Amino acid sequence: MTASAVLLRARSAAWLLLPSLFLAGCAPKPPAEEPVRAVKLVTVGTSDFDAQPEFSAEVRARVESRLGFRVAGKITKRQAELGQHVQAGQVLAQLDPQDYKLAAEAARAQQAAALTNRDLAAADLKRYRELREQNFISGAELERRETTWKAAQAQLEQAQAQLASQGNQANYTTLVADVAGVITAIEAEPGQVVQAGTPVVRIAQDGARDVVFAVPEDRAALIKPDSPVTVRGWSGGNELQGVVREVAASADAVTRTYSVKVAIDAATSPALGATVYARPQALAHSSTAVMKLPTSALRQEGKGTAVWVLDKSTMTVRSQPVQVATADGNEAVIGGGIAPGMMVVAAGVHVLSPGQKVTIYQSKEAAAAANVKDAAQPAEAVAATKKEIAAGAAK
Asked: What is the set of domains in the chain, with CATH numbers?
């Protein structure tokens, strides 16, 4: 065979191999294996559930009033201060009374004019009665004089009432406390022009005290009036006993919670505005065995809740739907879906997929201790072998 024939055959073989090489280059690459993730596990068990919900509350006065002037004007002085204890009749604030004093003077002048007109009409009436007795005037003329006197008398009474009203208006420029209590808020300052009825100060009356807290809708129906409530101070101290006095009939427009007022003894009550904690006994649960999981183990799956359960034989995870009954602090009380003894992934649940292989996570301290133990085992084995050899030589 000539060299040209050999070259031709080689070229033909190369052209035949090109399609197979092209197809080999276009073949899809095998999918990358999923990483083996280390997960923290918790073993499902049962524990006693003796929960008594506790709500943050505030101590308030049974009656708290917003006091304001009964007339409009400019505040010239405010004697009340926040937190001050005041007595009934004590001056709290004052308005500029000048305009009301001038109005009272005008009413007093109108009263004097009306009094003069009435006296003049009375004198005329007396004179005309004498003339009538002597038949010098007609009865109709006497009646006109009597009518004039009655009109003058009515004008006098109107002027007297107007003077009394203007005098009251002038007195209303001084705001006084109508009850004894503590100033809990200042809502207007000197120099401010206020309308009649605008709140200036808020006063908490001395006497009965309430503990006020809010509960969600699902628990409001369980709390009944006169049911006992335990109250403890935020900073410690003795516990107080109270009873539910009032449960709001409608929810708050913003928080959608229901306000609960608990009556406590005023003699042992904490200071007004103090933060306390209230534990309604109507919401207490008796000791029952329940299954709990950390909230970090839960995840949303569709419209329900699920957890990852470890299959120890294959070291893979599978999704398991669960029913959450309630919460207990940072743990969820599980109502069904799992059983004691199962191993549930407690952290990193959002990076797993069904059937994924996992390993059990070990902290750095535990891993270091295991390494030390493994390193010590060969040395112990060598020492044991040396002992065996020495014992054989001795024999």
From this structure: 33-50+286-372 (2.40.420.20), 97-170 (1.10.287), 209-283 (2.40.30.170)
